[in-house]
Amino acid sequence: MTLVIDTEHLTKFYGSSRGIVDVDLDVEVGDVFGFLGPNGAGKTTTIRILLDLLRPSSGTATVLGLDARADGVSIRGRVGYLPGEYALYPRLTGAETLRYYANLRGGVDWPYVDTLARRLDFDQARRAGDLSTGNKRKLGLIQAFMHRPELLILDEPTAGLDPLVQREFYAMVDEAHAAGQTIFLSSHVLPEVQRVCSRVGFVREGRLVAVEDVAALGKKAVHHVEIEFAGAAPASEFETLAGVGAVRATDHRLGFTVTGTLDAIVKTAARHEVVAMTSHEPDLEDLFLAYYGEGAADAAAGEGADDAA
Ligand SMILES: Nc1ncnc2c1ncn2[C@@H]1O[C@H](COP(=O)(O)OP(=O)(O)OP(=O)(O)O)[C@@H](O)[C@H]1O
Ligand SMILES: [Mg+2]
Q1: Is 160 in the pocket of ligand 1 (CB under 6 A)?
Q2: What separation in Å is there between the alpha carbon of 224 and the centre of ligand 2?
């Protein structure tokens, strides 16, 4: 097993305030690893340490077999990196900015840059200073992908992208994965991680609390389902199904939660005339609770958990 990213007890305090604590990450060659957590969890802190843009308080980080502290320059040369906040030279156009990065790096084939720009619908002629948030993000993505790096580290790559562009980005990730590249991306959106990643690490309050195969997530996921029937809502038929809970019925409508697959509820609903049906993706908190129970959530949330009901 070859580890592309390997951290041990990685810890960062900003003065006395917690950045990350005791993070042990193992990312293997060919992984698409989703680093998932709410605002302030420690995603950017971890990523910046991997690229030696920030020094850890303790612990170690190895990237592509190189020590992050000793070999930061070589690591940054080999990795495609999209920072969470992207600083640009405002007077350069998109094309000039990309040429600048391409010259720094070398080994960039320009037709590929044009292809990426076209796919992301990015106008290279505009000045960086005049770009909208989403368009700056696109420029950052092109810059990260343009040398086909063996490892991509992307800090919230889809933040600010519209749905069409997001979809194109997911396709780029799939292709990079198929080409054998390794991808480490941060996100606070579970469906996105489920869509593109093979593994997911949950970060909470600075700690990596779990790492799971994405394929296993669906089995534990809690869906919120609402069904509107033409006739009276057949609540009793649903209450007895395995995995169904929190059933609420008004004359024609039924709402409930489902743990696991939706197969049994779809088949039960199909015995009646269904007017409308919605199923909401499980959110991060629900999924976390399904995995680790209330106790685990409270423990991970630490002293700040004054809202733990
Ligand atoms: N320069 C800094 N000085 C002091 N505290 C910081 C600094 N940068 C980050 N922190 C703190 O470290 C913790 C982790 O922040 P980090 O930016 O890594 O979170 P994140 O998971 O990337 O969040 P987001 O989803 O909002 O980007 C937060 O509590 C944050 O307030
Ligand atoms: Mg961040």
Answers
A1: no
A2: 28
